[in-house]
Structure prediction request, 123 residues.
Amino acid sequence: MESNAMTSYKDTTPAARLDNQTLNKMVWRSCQLQAAFNYERMQSAGWLWAILPGLEKIHTNKDDLAASMTHNMDFLNTHPFFVTFVMGIVLSMEQQKTDIQTIRSVRISTAAPLGGIGDALFW
Prediction:
């Protein structure tokens, strides 16, 4: 993580629960996870596209939203069938305004193993 990057959000008030319309929008967007696949960040663009409706509802502070979008563009590689599980964990942590480094660590530590498990089961 860069030294000038935020380590926690400015607004630390937990966000309200996401409505079903937003959750459904994110599920449909998650089907396009690999549409913007690239070898530098793998699925990160598709990940951000899928999770963005939730992040916009959670982070009403523009600086917090920008910080969240930035760290959600980190390298990500998981199995497309299991991405919604990872999204649920990350969004829950984002709602609670958990420390950014913790969110990043949990995202990677859940996404990567699910990628390997999913590949073994489905491919």
